[in-house]
Amino acid sequence: MFRSFARLDNRLRNALLLCKMQRNRQPFKHAFKYSTSAATERKRFYQDVSIAQGEGGLYEINLDRRKLKTPGGKLFTVPNEALAIAVATEWDAQKDTLKFYTMHLTTLCNTALDNPTQRNEDQMISAALKFLETDTVCYRVDEPYGLVELQKNEWDPVLHWIEDRYNVVIGSSSSIMGPEIPEATKDTFRQHLKSYNFWSLTGFEYVITQLKSVVLSFGMIDRHLSVEQAVLLSRLEEEYQIQRWGNVEWAHDYDMYELRARTAAGALFVHLSSESSTIKHKLLQD
């Protein structure tokens, strides 16, 4: 069996563990999913998982002696050892049945490798920044008073943080049109996102689509917010309504854990695909 003891950042390690918690859950359909396989489940056909460094310094994933490939038929390769370890751990965590819908890191790698929508970095950045116009934390309610205050108390600190951090103006509004985001703000974020490579942008856009918020995504990727905090803030109105009217407990927990898992995987993917140095550790196999 595959084991790794690379010293990943504790927050990233926790994120990976959160992703692995989802392997026994059912599929959740979302817009940004590029499936590992046409089927959502398949009987496990391998015993051992390992990684190997191939041509150009890229890392491959081996299932027994078979090299993993993408849905598009390309050799599955990742840019560094840290990401290879994380993906291999995901495959090793599967039990008798492979549940592809729980393998978010693998899915993100497939998306980056096959690029099914055939977009470049500029197109990905433009798509991500579109969410700024409808950002969750920028749209406020007029009533009830309790929710108005909750949004102010919980969202305003994050909004002020990102405005100070990037020296931009965003604002908030209860108008159906939302706040008018200055072009200078969009340009600042655009320039910042250009510092990320194609792989990292794939993860960044994925996180934004999960949280429906550029502000919360930046806060989490910059490690100002934890995964749990970002997810809770993205669901603030829903949580308020649940506290007020109650909920179906299992359904609420299911939705919360699913969103946490996907968001954690996206954040982990951004950080690992940005990793420039190889982790100098060996892999142990039984």
List keywords for this structure.
four-stranded antiparallel β-sheet; 286 residues; alpha+beta; disordered N terminus; globular; single chain
Describe the structure.
The protein has eleven helices and eight strands. A hairpin with a 2-residue loop joins β4 (59-63) and β5 (66-67). The model is unreliable at 1-15, 19-38 and 277-286 (pLDDT under 50). It is of the alpha+beta class and 286 residues long. The radius of gyration is 20 Å and the shape is globular. It has helices spanning 10-20, 81-92, 104-114, 121-130, 145-166, 183-193, 198-211, 214-221, 227-234, 236-245, 249-273; strands at 2-4, 41-43, 49-53, 59-63, 66-67, 77-78, 97-99, 283-285. α3 (104-114) packs across α7 (198-211), α4 (121-130) runs parallel beside α7 and α8 packs antiparallel against α9 (227-234). Strands 3, 4, 5 and 6 form a four-stranded antiparallel beta sheet that branches. A two-stranded antiparallel ribbon has the order 1-8. A two-stranded antiparallel ribbon has the order 2-7.
Element layout with pairings:
Layout: E1 2-4, H1 10-20, E2 41-43, E3 49-53, E4 59-63, E5 66-67, E6 77-78, H2 81-92, E7 97-99, H3 104-114, H4 121-130, H5 145-166, H6 183-193, H7 198-211, H8 214-221, H9 227-234, H10 236-245, H11 249-273, E8 283-285
Antiparallel strand pairs: 1-8, 2-7, 3-4, 4-5, 4-6
Helix pairs in contact: 1-11, 3-7, 4-7, 5-8, 7-8, 7-11, 8-9, 9-11
